[in-house]
Amino acid sequence: MSGIVESAGTETARGLPGGQEGTARPAGDPGQRQTVRRALLDAALEVFTERGYTDAGLTEIAARSGIPVGSLFQHYGGKRGLYLALWEEFREGQERRTEATLTSERGRGVDDPVALFAAGARAYLEGAWDNRRLGGLLAEDDGPSGFDALRRQWDRAWVRRNARLLQVDERRRAGRVRVSVLTTVIGGAARELADCGDETEAREIVDEVCGILLHLSTPPR
């Protein structure tokens, strides 16, 4: 996995206090299950975006998806499971995107840690723009109980992996702080992109932030 967005181990919905809400393994054809799950996630994203997580209703999500509420519970266990599945989808998509970019850059012979970090950051930010509606939802404070703790754990792992990508000695406080600042810049820019409605402005933001990252990530002489 890339240093930019690698996940915090194998934590999933089960990592939340109380676990996921009684999810049973649904029966049926795998293709049909995938279709049902996609419809439920798309509807959940619409309702969560419009009403927020707290005020979102399962009945409305089921109605918009055209899937019975009972099937919703069978596939996702409830509202928490839907939210966490959306988060996993966003996170894993970002990981695949940045990993593919770093693999391509290394295949071209790029081995400079700063250049690789900047390329991975650009891929991450472009992904944040392409998936801005989902990214904007996940950046809000309105999520399931315990999600903030899970997100902080992932953020800490993100910093550690960025440190490895940049070949920073984590035993040195100055190095840790520098990587933490760089990671915070990427996260903050991703949130700005979620609120940006103009593609030209979004590209300008990505270029500006990548320039800042290149400057900040160059080790002091």
Explain what the structure shows.
The structure is a single chain. The chain is mainly α and 221 residues long. It has a domain at 1-7 and 93-221: Tetracycline Repressor, domain 2 (Orthogonal Bundle), CATH 1.10.357. 71% of the residues lie in helices and 0% in strands. The chain is built from 9 helices and no strands. Helix 6 (132-139) crosses helix 8 (173-194). The relative contact order is 0.15. Residues 5-25 have low confidence and may be disordered. Residues 57-76 bind DNA. Pfam families: TetR_N (PF00440). This is DNA-binding transcriptional repressor AcrR.
Average pLDDT value? 86
Number of helices: 9
Secondary structure category: mainly alpha
Provide the low-confidence segments as ranges: 5-25
- What is the helical fraction, as a range of percent? over 70%
Please trace the helix and strand order, writing H or E for each element.
Answer: HHHHHHHHH
Would you count the extended β strands for me? 0
In what range is the share of β-strand residues?
Answer: under 5%
- What would you call the shape? elongated
The largest β sheet comes out as: none
**CATH hierarchy class name of one domain:** Mainly Alpha
Describe the secondary structure blueprint for this structure.
Layout: H1 30-55, H2 58-65, H3 69-76, H4 79-107, H5 113-130, H6 132-139, H7 147-165, H8 173-194, H9 199-217
InterPro entries: Homeodomain-like_sf (IPR009057), HTH-type_TetR-like_transc_reg (IPR050109), HTH_TetR (IPR001647)
GO molecular function: DNA binding
Protein name: DNA-binding transcriptional repressor AcrR
